[in-house]
Write a structure and sequence with these properties.
Elements (H helix, E strand, L loop, with lengths): L2 E4 L3 E4 L3 E6 L13 H9 L7 E8 L6 E7 L5 E3 L26
Antiparallel strand pairs: 1-2, 3-4, 4-5, 5-6
Amino acid sequence: MQSIECPWCGPRDEIEFRYGGQAGIAYPRDPGALSDEEWAGYVFMRDNPRGWFHERWFHVHGCRTWFSIRRHTVTHETGPVPDTGREPESDRTGRGPLARGTGEAR
């Protein structure tokens, strides 16, 4: 079983979390102006690397917070996202900028 480290609760089994997809995908500024093809690209097209990947996770059975981690897609080793000098992209309401479009209730 994979272990994921929640920034607030510490390491937990993966069954406590819900995968939220690739981190860093910005919500379109004007979604009503997108064509069907552009909207489908936003919703479905994501990177699929072999190696380190930035992901969003939601701690369902814990603090109910969205957060970002780095995960190696081959070894499933995880680690924090490198410090960029910005505030963490998460909040306790699930309404963070990257929570949109993941299918999770807000």
